[in-house]
Amino acid sequence: MSHGAQEAVLMSKFNPFQFVQEVRQEVSKVTWPTRKEVWITTIMVLIMVTLAAIFFLLTDLVIGQLVNTALGLRG
Question: Where's it mainly located (predicted)?
Fold first, then answer.
């Protein structure tokens, strides 16, 4: 059977109600985080973003100074 014919057979067997039932079964298997876990994770992400921003700010300032010094510019 050709690829197109196989695809047509698969499409004809598609049942949207069965699909929704299978999706609900899979969602019921998911372990959802608690509010406390979400809050702690959110705080951790904000702290890491702040630290990364400070790191890149300082790195940019240092590299900018080095470039200005190397080019003989005064800033």
Answer: membrane
